[in-house]
């Protein structure tokens, strides 16, 4: 029997499958486990099932000890994990691609609709008790039909967002490290372009690339200035891909029309200037937040941990 440390609350189905085979020490506090507590608990762990709020670095791997075999992240993004530090220590790192693709694309579309149709503003007016009535020019937004969506990062989530946007009558261009499957590109009518072209032709830019040194502040003042002043920026990937201070300035000065953010540079903090702007929709990292999706993510992470502990190939290793 191995010792499995789970760094936060996860759905019962995943805990059950871990407990069926191993001794499980799961943090069940409503607040995140603190660093000190985490360093203490991982000592002697053979597997760590981690949430994206916990940093898994060399210090933590050493605190666990040389018997550690696997870190199974309950997230597709793994910028919280120092993968080279895992590799150096012979620890397998895994993530949860695929199972959250649709939920995250749904949130991207939600933010696109909320921003372009000014739904947050409308809700705030009603809740404030301010008087309002239907008016020909009241809270006019912008239609999606015939407009262009620019997708940065055309992996599974980018493609799922493109598919939804197509159903709304949008054209799709994308920027990606690699060409996508030609059949999928044809189905979506999606054209691969360089980032500067994407920024200049898109009416909505949606960010779906992973975060790392190469994508830190990929969208900054210069990129925002390259967008149309009628365009919107949506980010459901990772906060630091967008320079939040530059975005706040661009939104305030009308450099772009609006934005929708599910992720932030210093979560859970949000840049104070964004909080007072009406042309940005702010939601608290809900991309994968459905019961079904979170259950599937946790079960996949548990399957990854169990496979490695049993000496098998995990279903979704980080490569
Ligand atoms: C969520 O943000 C994830 O990466 O799964």
Give a quick rundown of the structure.
The chain is an alpha/beta fold and 319 residues long. The protein has helices at 12-21, 35-41, 58-64, 83-88, 101-116, 119-128, 156-167, 182-188, 195-201, 221-226, 244-252, 272-275, 291-309; strands at residues 3-6, 23-26, 47-50, 70-73, 92-94, 148-152, 171-175, 190-192, 204-207, 232-235, 258-261, 280-282.
Unreliably modeled segments = none
Q: Determine the mean pLDDT.
A: 98
Strand order of the largest sheet: 8-7-6-9-10-11-12
Roughly what percent helix?
25-40%
Which small-molecule ligands are present, each listed once?
A: glyoxylic acid
Assigned CATH class of the largest domain: Alpha Beta
In the CATH hierarchy, the third-tier topology of the largest domain is known as Rossmann fold
Q: What does the main sheet amount to?
A: 7 strands, parallel
- What would you report as the Rg, rounded to the nearest angstrom? 21 Å
Return the domain count: 2
The CATH architecture of the largest domain is: 3-Layer(aba) Sandwich
- Class computed from helices, strands and strand pairing: alpha/beta
Shape: globular
How much strand content do the residues show? 5-15%
- N/C terminus separation: 27 Å
Q: CATH-wise, what's the superfamily of the largest domain? A: NAD(P)-binding Rossmann-like Domain
Total helical segments: 13
